[in-house]
């Protein structure tokens, strides 16, 4: 028994059964939407806040600020509320209304600006005044360490060490970095595959960062392959996952699944795990399911 924070992690691993016919290749979705705040970002948010408190970097009187495209902000808002911490979240104005309302429901202040890059600059500028503490998921090692502690071990356990390929969208890159570190330590032959949007595509949760904004926690040497995902493919696969597998999730999950299927079609046997990042109800006001 415990509070809501204690239910973060240990999400189900669900097999995909209706998209490919080779019985020697198995595809599993790691269902991160089952976390209490609804996404894989619950893990990083908890580890960033808890670790900062343990190190004494923040106290109950600290004002937190963070730039987010949505999922990290929702997770931070929930966890900050549990710790009675003040939090301002800075988010692109193109984000779905559901995300903003959820953050506010958890008690966070939400500031909307034009682009994610502008949001990041704004948060860092306010933190530089000394009035706010920025968690900075893009450069904070506690982001990826959350997945070394939890996600990676869960995947290794639930596949009985048989995983051959790990597939993840890349945004802050914390999920793919942490899982790569853990899984490669267990078996260096495991292939780590990242997803980024094609040049012309806009996919919430997956980014192709300008060089100046590339997350500092990102280490390209930890990824074996990057697959470019079109907006159309990410959208179609998210819709198909919902209708054919009952996995209700967003476009970043659709993108990761598209990449997982591509890998499945290239290999003769293996166990592929991809991250199902969040829940589809975050996108109902968009045209994803329209």
UniProtKB/TrEMBL annotation:
Cofactor(s) essential for the protein: pyridoxal 5'-phosphate
Pathway in which the depicted protein is active: Amino-acid biosynthesis; L-cysteine biosynthesis; L-cysteine from L-serine: step 2/2
Signal peptide stretch: none
Enzyme Commission designation: 2.5.1.47
Pfam families, sorted: PALP (PF00291)
Residues annotated to bind pyridoxal 5'-phosphate: 71, 171-175, 252
EC class name: transferase
Chain ranges of the Tryptophan synthase beta chain-like PALP domain: 6-278
Keywords associated with the record: Amino-acid biosynthesis, Cysteine biosynthesis, Pyridoxal phosphate, Transferase
GO biological process, one term: cysteine biosynthetic process from serine
Protein family according to the UniProt entry: Belongs to the cysteine synthase/cystathionine beta-synthase family.
Name of the featured protein: cysteine synthase
Organism: Sphingobacterium olei
Gene (name only): cysM
